[in-house]
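Hi V.,

Quick status before I head out on leave. The structure for the redesign project is tokenized and pasted below; the design run finished overnight.
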């Protein structure tokens, strides 16, 4: 179902993203790339790469990105900045063990039916000491932010998406936050998959979140002052 949905919304996915996030999604992606804390030209897998926003940004900063996504429609619409693209299930990546320096994924965690399996696969394809960064939506903690978030993402976004793309898909996407594990559970799942030093970062009042961790076998990255 998720694969078919993303195939359907691919042609206008970038446009709707910009509108429904007021253009903030670009900054969130840049923050996620910064938390890789890797020096170019590190080899980085953009998992669930969609239309290639993160891959393009990685390439622009001198990294060597590889994009992977289950949706052929998304890959067909992608502009990945020259990165090679791979249609692949996140639990069965056609990649060698330990080949990547980093794995990054934007707004996909809640769409993985087997999240532990995907995390284990990320650990498999990362070298010891490699970095994992997961960017996704979240629910704000303040009541005022929660109210605004609920009105916008459950009321306005489905109408906006319906007018420009596919109404059913944009009814699902705001509600899919319910599939995200709670913070403590998500951090535990990451560490159980073979990572250490998992940290959580809240962005824009808790509208989005980032989880970053280091593959076991390397030196953990120091915690920054921005950790939430």
């Amino acid at each position: 179902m998720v694969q078919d949905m993303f195939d359907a919304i691919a042609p206008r996915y970038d446009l709707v993203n910009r509108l429904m996030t007021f253009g903030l999604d670009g900054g969130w992606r840049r923050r996620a790339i910064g938390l890789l804390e890797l020096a170019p030209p590190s080899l980085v897998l953009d998992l669930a790469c969609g239309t290639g926003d993160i891959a393009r940004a990685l390439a622009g900063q001198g990294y060597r990105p590889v994009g992977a996504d289950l949706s052929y429609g998304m890959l067909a619409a992608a502009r990945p900045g020259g990165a090679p693209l791979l249609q692949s299930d996140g639990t069965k990546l056609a990649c060698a063990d330990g080949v990547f320096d980093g794995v990054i994924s934007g707004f996909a965690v809640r769409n993985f039916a087997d999240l532990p399996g995907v995390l284990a696969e990320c650990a498999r394809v990362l070298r010891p000491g490699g970095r994992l960064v997961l960017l996704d939506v979240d629910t704000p903690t303040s009541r005022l932010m929660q109210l605004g978030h609920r009105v916008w993402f459950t009321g306005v976004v489905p109408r906006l998406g319906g007018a420009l793309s596919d109404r059913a898909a944009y009814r699902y996407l705001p509600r899919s936050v319910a599939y995200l594990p709670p913070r403590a559970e998500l951090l535990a799942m990451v560490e159980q998959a073979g990572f250490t030093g998992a940290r959580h970062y809240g962005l824009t009042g808790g509208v989005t979140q980032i989880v970053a961790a280091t593959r076991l076998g390397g030196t953990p990255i120091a915690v920054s002052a921005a950790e939430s």
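Above is the designed sequence. The mean pLDDT is 88.

G. will cover questions while I'm gone.

Best,
W.
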